[in-house]
Amino acid sequence: MASQNPNKITKYRRPLNLNIGMIIFAVIFVYIVICVFMYFTSKHVVWYEVQAGSLSTNNIYKAVALRDETIINASDNGYVNYFAREGARVAVGDLVYTVDESGKLADYIGTDSTGENSLSQADLTELKTEIVGFANNFDRKNFNSVYDFKYEMEGNVLKLSNYNILESIESIQASEVTGLIKQCRASVAGIVIYSTDDYEDLTLEMMTAELFDTKNYEKTQLLGNNLVAPGDPVYKISSNEDWSLVIPVDKQREEELLEAEYVKVRFLKNQETSWGKVESFTNEAGDIFVKLTFTNSMITFCNERFVDIELILEDETGLKIPNSSIVEKEFFIIPKAYVTKGGNSNSYGVLKETYTEEGEATTEFIETSIYNETDEEYYLDDPALRIGDYIIMPETSEKYAVSKRGSLIGVYNINKGYADFKQINILYSNDEYSIVQSNTTYGLNVYDYIVLDATTVSEDELIH
Predict the structure, then answer these.
(1) Taking the complete model, does pTM exceed 0.90, yes or no?
(2) What confidence category does residue 164 fall into, taking pLDDT thresholds of 50, 70 and 90?
C-alpha cells in the first residue's frame, strides 16, 4: 500500500454566498444596460413650442458712401491749426483753420495765455460715444482701423481743445504772434471733414468691385500742427445734405429693389433707420450696383467712407416655426356637398358606397378629418378612402368618384400625443425659420407643440 504524500495541498472551494446587496446591484446594472440600449436604438422625437414672432429680411452690406465733397487746399506755408469741429456745419465766413508761419501759435496755445482749456462734458460724451462705437465694431481682420481710429481721436481731441480758444482769438491776434497767423475761413457753407481718400469724385457709373476692398483702401487723416505747403489739402467740405450709399448686388436683388423704388435701411452704427431711393447701374465687367439716396443722416457718417447697413425688405408677424418642421402631404379633394355629419358623433365624414356579400349596394359612414377648405371643396384624408371609391351625396343618389388630389404644406402637431397634420400658410421664410399665419381654422395656435424634424415621424404615429 502506497503511502500518502503528506505535502499534497488540496485547494478549498469556497461556496458562493449570495446576499441581498449583490442581487440588488445586479438588477440595477441590468436595468441600466437595458435603458442605455433602448435609448440608442429607439427613435427620438424632439418637439418645438410654437411662439409668436416675426422675421425680417435682414441683408447686411458694406456700402460705399458718395457725397458732394470739395477738397480745400492750403494757399500758404505754415503749421495748420483747426478751430472748426469735424462734422460741424460752418457758414460762409466762419473760421475753419489758421496757418502759422512761425509755429509759435502752438506754443502760445499751450501756455496759460488762453486761460483754462478743458473739455466740456458734452465733448467728453462725444469722445466716449466714438470709443464705444469703435470697440463694438472692431474687426481683428482689419487691424489697420486701429491706427485710423488713433489718428481720428488725436485730431478730434485737438480740434475740441482748439475750439475752446475761439473766444481768445482777438487776444491772440493782439499778441506777439500778430501778423504771423493767417485765418482761413469757409468760402461755402457745409459740413467740415478732416480726411481725404481719393473717393471724393466717385459716382455710381465709376463703381467697380475693387472699390469695396477695404484692404486696399487708404485714408489720409488731416491733423493739426502739421506743416503744410500751398496746394496741400487741409480739409473737405460737403455742402449738400443729400448723399448716397452704393452696394453690390445680384440680378435678383436688383430687380427686387428697383420694384420697391424705396427701401428701408438700418444703419448698424447707431441702429437708426431711413428710407433710400433706389437706382442701379451695371458696369462693363457685369457687376451690378445699387445706389440708395438719402435726404438725411449724412452728418452722422460724414467722415466714414464705408458704412455697414441692413436692408429691411420684409417684416412679417405671425407664428414662428423652424423650417425642419415643415412637411408636404397629399389629400383627397372632395366637393363640400358630399361631406356631412353622422355616425355616433358630431364629426364630419362621407358616405362611402359599399357592397354586401350578396352584392347589394349600401352606404357606410366614414369619419374623416378636414385639413383645409376652399369655397367649394374640402381637403380630406382617411385610410378607408381609395382612388376610385364612390361616395354618395346625402339625401340624394348622386355619386362622386374619389380621384382628385392636392397637396398641403403643414407640420405635425403632437398636443394629443400623436402626430396630427396641421396645414400652415407661410407668410415669409428665411434659411432657418418661417412665419406662418396665425388664427387659421385648420392651422396652428401659439404654444402648440410640433415635431421639430418632420422626417422623424409619420402621420398618426404615437409620440412617447
Answers:
(1) no
(2) low
